[in-house]
């Protein structure tokens, strides 16, 4: 094992991924002893069957476990990122308590299950809970950074942009990566709720601005928006887009990057992830649409770049 410092200052442990027995793993978790190896083994065997661990066993010998590629995605990487905060975020008590009401989204879709349980929408609830907001920022960074790496490999729509606003940009990871790749962009504005940008790290070339996209959006040549529209109703999306239109300078454009559900309900992991995402949004957020917005994006074959003026 070797210790490293993460970019946010936390200590990170990088595993060599040598197969370990349950007692060796217990010693790592509880160096001063104790713990129940049999119970840990039950959990590790189940996680093995889900592809998180590989099991190594000589004939009837002791079981040893190493991480699979899925398991590794849950371990903090050299940049301090992993998918683990996303998993933890989705299993917080506040989210879990909305799931027993998922049927209510069918019976009475006017108020989402999260609001029925907590009396207020998810984003205003997070706003009062700094630890929830912090976990959301880390969760978004963990899933967004690898995703943006592949977007930036293939998407060329930032050409000619001088001032770029990322609406709902969370900690600013997307903007940081866009600016690192496209040096011609002189100025990046990371626009999100005040309580979110208030805790965002400083990034060269990026100004964090707190506000509400339903009121107004800072002016720019181009507006980038990723994984934002999918959590709002069609009417709310129209309002956000009207504010984008007002914010765009002449010749500007809106670059929307959102999940698009294909027609076929097949068994692929991708389809399942998208369908599960829809159920998550239906339970926690507000999205209730007639698919017209998605259709609008889907018919734009090149880049989902919506032209402004
Ligand atoms: C699912 S996250 C996406 C974050 C980021 N775009 C990414 O893909 O990495 C949605 C973001 O929208 C922000 N948001 C929610 N309501 C907002 C509002 N009224 N005005 C501005 N941002 C908002 C949230 O705080 C959150 O950071």
Automatic annotation (TrEMBL):
The keyword Ubl conjugation does not apply. Pfam families: Dimerisation, Methyltransf_2. Residues 16-77 form the O-methyltransferase dimerisation domain. GO terms for biological process: methylation. PROSITE patterns: SAM_OMT_II (PS51683). Residues 103-283 form the O-methyltransferase C-terminal domain. It comes from the Eukaryota. GO terms for molecular function: O-methyltransferase activity; protein dimerization activity; S-adenosylmethionine-dependent methyltransferase activity. The keyword rRNA-binding does not apply. Keywords: Methyltransferase, S-adenosyl-L-methionine, Transferase. This is Uncharacterized protein. It comes from Citrus sinensis (Sweet orange).
């Amino acid at each position: 094992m070797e210790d490293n410092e993460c970019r946010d200052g936390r200590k990170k442990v990088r595993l060599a991924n040598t197969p370990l027995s349950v007692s060796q793993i217990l010693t790592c978790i509880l160096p001063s002893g104790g713990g129940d190896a049999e119970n840990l083994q039950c959990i590790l065997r189940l996680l093995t069957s889900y592809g998180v661990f590989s099991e190594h066993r000589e004939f009837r010998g002791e079981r040893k476990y190493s991480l699979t590629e899925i398991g590794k995605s849950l371990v903090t990487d050299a940049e301090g990122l992993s998918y683990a905060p996303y998993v933890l975020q989705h299993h917080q008590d506040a989210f879990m308590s909305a799931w027993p009401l998922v049927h209510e989204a069918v019976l009475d879709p006017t108020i989402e299950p999260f609001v029925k349980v907590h009396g207020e929408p998810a984003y205003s609830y997070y706003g009062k809970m700094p630890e929830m907001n912090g976990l959301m920022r880390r969760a978004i960074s963990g899933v967004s950074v690898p995703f943006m790496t592949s977007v930036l490999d293939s998407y060329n729509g930032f050409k000619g942009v001088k001032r770029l606003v990322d609406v709902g940009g969370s900690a600013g990871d997307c903007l940081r990566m866009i600016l690192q790749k496209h040096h011609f962009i002189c100025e990046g504005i990371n626009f999100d709720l005040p309580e979110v940008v208030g805790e965002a790290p400083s990034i060269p070339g990026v100004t964090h601005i707190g506000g509400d996209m339903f009121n107004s959006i800072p002016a720019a040549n181009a507006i980038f928006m990723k994984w934002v529209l999918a959590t709002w109703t069609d009417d709310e999306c129209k309002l956000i887009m009207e504010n984008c239109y007002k914010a765009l300078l002449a010749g500007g454009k809106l670059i929307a990057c959102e999940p698009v559900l294909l027609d076929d309900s097949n068994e692929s992991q991708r389809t399942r992830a998208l369908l599960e995402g829809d159920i998550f949004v239906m339970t926690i957020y507000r999205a209730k649409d007639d698919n017209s917005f998605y259709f609008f994006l889907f018919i734009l074959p090149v880049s989902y770049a919506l032209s402004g003026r």
